Amino acid sequence: MASTTATTTVENSVKSSNTSDYDKFFWTYTEEPHRTRRQAIIKAYPEVLKLCGVEPLTKYLVLAVVLLQVACAACLRTTPVLSITFLLTAYIIGATANQNLFLAIHEISHNLAFKNPTANRLLAVFANFPIGIPYSAAFRPYHLTHHKSLGIDGLDTDLPTSLEALFLDSVAGKAFFCTFQILFYALRPMFVYQLPFTNLHAANVLAQLFFDLTIYHYLGGPALAYFILSSFLAGSLHPCAGHFIAEHYVFDRAQVLKALNQKTSHMPSAVAPPPETFSYYGPLNFFCYNVGLHNEHHDFPAVPWSRLPVLHEMAKEFYADLPRHESW
């Protein structure tokens, strides 16, 4: 994309600067920056490792939001789907709640709700229910690869493909992308590389089908439509959906290069890789498990959402000069 290009780390291949694909992405040839910064922070603040571990509150928040969504669906069971009441509820409450559940599943994928891995997988399947479409089992392996191979073309499925950059490189194309970005986010991984279908995937699908059929049987079509519409709006033109674009898309190449060349006492510019991740510290983090603190999250994926602000304050000098977003 032109002004919102994804950062991409090139490995095992060389891209010619004369190609159009090259110009639509910000290519770097250094290691991804999070490992470098993580080692520097641990050296400066060894106690940072005490922040790692599970957050018991997560499971209760998931339960509360799932119950909220079921209650809203029950209240709307006789409301016409295209009515103002239905649409506003789906946008204001439903989309915010389902975005919260998207990010709960993100948090759970790092085994940060329970110490037991199986308990985390089951909680993710439960958090998936109001989303309406099974995806929690598939999300985890793709997301962990995103962390391990950040920005690597062909592995990091958070990056738009060359085809997207080609056909969506216009104002209309970007408006289309922002409106339907949840579909790009959901379908893109299958076109980049495919995962084997496991027993966990099957359990996720069967559990979701059972939940959807139960909702349809007892509450009717409008209730199920509320879940699906909430999920679509959560990844569309909704304030909380801004994090999908804000996290790893380069808006201002000059700003990134300035940050790279800026000398600091804690990480000399000569060894600091260019920023590939961008944080947001505003109020919408309240609804989104602090996912806006995205540099902090990628630096320390084992630190749960509730302790990311503590991490930021502890190592504030490491984040103060990094490019950031002031809004979503």
Describe the structure.
The protein is mainly alpha-helical and 328 residues long. It is globular and about 55 Å long.
Side-by-side strand order of the widest sheet: 2-1-3
C-alpha Rg (nearest Å): 20 Å
N- and C-termini, Cα separation: 18 Å
What percent of residues are in strands? under 5%
Q: Helix content range of the residues, please?
A: 40-55%
Main pleated-sheet profile = 3 strands, mixed
Overall pLDDT score: 87
H/E series: EHEHHHHHHHHHHHEHEHHHE
Sequence stretches where pLDDT stays below 50 over 5 or more residues:
1-19
Query: Helical stretch count?
Result: 16
By helix and strand content, what is the structural category? mainly alpha
Q: Any idea what the shape is?
A: globular
Beta strand count: 5
Q: Top keywords for this entry?
A:
328 residues; mainly alpha; 3-stranded mixed β-sheet; two-stranded parallel ribbon; globular; disordered N terminus
Question: What's the short story on this structure?
Answer:
With 328 residues, this protein is mainly alpha-helical.
Question: Secondary structure elements and their pairing?
Answer:
Blueprint: E1 5-9, H1 20-23, E2 26-28, H2 33-44, H3 57-75, H4 84-108, H5 117-128, H6 136-148, H7 162-167, H8 171-179, H9 181-192, H10 199-219, H11 221-234, H12 242-246, E3 249-250, H13 253-261, E4 279-280, H14 294-299, H15 308-314, H16 316-319, E5 324-325
Parallel strand pairs: 1-2, 4-5
Antiparallel strand pairs: 1-3
Helix pairs in contact: 3-4, 3-11, 4-5, 4-11, 5-10, 10-11
